[in-house]
Amino acid sequence: MINFTVGPVQSSDSVRMVGAEQVPYFRTPEFSEVMFENERLIKKFAHADENSKVVFITGSGTASMEATIINTLTKEDKVLVVNGGSFGHRFVELCRLHEIPYTEISLDYGQALSKEHIDAFDGKDYTGFVVNLNETSTGVLYDINMISDFCKKNNLFLIVDAISAFLADPINMSASKIDVMITGSQKALACPPGVSVIVLSENAVNRVKNNDAKCMYLDLKNALKNAERGQTPFTPAVGILLQINVRLKEIEKSGGVEAETAKIADIAEDFRKRISDLPFEICSDSLSNAVTPIHPTTASAYDIFTILKDEYGIWICPNGGELAEKIFRVGHIGCLTKEDNDKLIEAFYDLKKRNII
Ligand SMILES: *Cc1c(COP(=O)(O)O)cnc(C)c1O
């Protein structure tokens, strides 16, 4: 099987080997050291300020999205939420559920966020901005520099869901003055699902400390207090945190975050170059390195997904809902090579030969 979805994705052999080992007891100085190292490397790769803190949540990315909304925002806030697909919509739902005042910036499928969209809210009474850097459902990467300039000018608290963008697209928390960055274990981190990560700026840590969050499992005050000693309030997904440790050290050894991002960009570019003679349209105004959204012009997208899975042992990523027949996505994150691209391209050409596309 070759997995070109956007998560869970393929893991390296060293990460998989850790998965085969016994899971150790974790209230130990040894495990605390692993957690401190995880924090140090995540901060380094996110270009976070020295005073930033990292918490590891046992729960998929959505748990960290919810923890962020509950712990860093209050009813006194008024936030702008970019809604360009199902993950933007999830932030809208979270704000509604937790009664955080918000205004939605709704985008069409595949549409980039423009300066006109946000300038309409310049100089108003907003306090925060919430965005998915790469809206993975549509494969649109928003312009972080434009968003950052707007937030700096309007003094907005900036929450960035970089769950699929972290490691795949350039991100610099310090330069972009990002207050909260979220990522997850099963995207470009290329580990099993189950852990998500929240990086909090000093400003965000202060917001957490002054917020009376009404929840227990996702209480970030408690998580931050435990993180001081390299621990978590409750039993975390110990095995996955050990796999994350191996993976982060692997990235560090092979040139750091810049090298990893360049590798993913290279694989994405190689793939995109080689589909130009196929009956496919790339349907995003602004592509992330993590994923290519494709509209096949001669066949059902869902049929292509099914045939590749059942007859070729290749997994691409179907879209849900209304677009299931129209669009599929090809992910470029995880342990993939250009030789894997060869096999996928070959399969597409075979579908063409068989008149399926
Ligand atoms: C994958 C993803 C999520 C989180 O999804 P989970 O299934 O909860 O891990 C959120 N936002 C983005 C942009 C994602 O790519």
Question: What layout of secondary structure does this protein have?
Answer:
Elements: E1 2-3, H1 13-19, H2 29-45, E2 53-58, H3 61-72, E3 79-83, H4 86-97, E4 102-106, H5 115-119, E5 128-132, E6 134-135, E7 140-141, H6 144-154, E8 157-161, E9 180-184, E10 195-200, H7 202-209, H8 220-227, H9 238-253, H10 256-274, E11 280-282, E12 291-296, H11 301-312, E13 314-315, E14 317-318, E15 328-331, H12 338-353
Parallel strand pairs: 1-13, 3-4, 3-5, 5-8, 8-9
Antiparallel strand pairs: 2-10, 6-7, 9-10, 11-12, 12-15, 14-15
Helix pairs in contact: 1-9, 2-9, 3-4
The structure holds pyridoxal-5'-phosphate (PLP).
Pyridoxal-5'-phosphate (PLP) is lined by residues 7, 60-62, 87, 132, 134, 136, 161, 163-164, 184, 187.
Ligands bound to this protein structure? pyridoxal-5'-phosphate
How many separate helices? Answer: 12
The H/E string reads: EHHEHEHEHEEEHEEEHHHHEEHEEEH
Average pLDDT figure:
97
Straight-line distance between termini? 22 Å
Computed Rg: 20 Å
The total of beta strands comes to 15
Largest sheet: 7 strands, mixed
Shape: globular
Helix amount, in percent?
40-55%
Main sheet: which strands, in order across?
Answer: 2-10-9-8-5-3-4
Report low-confidence residues grouped into runs of 5 or more.
none
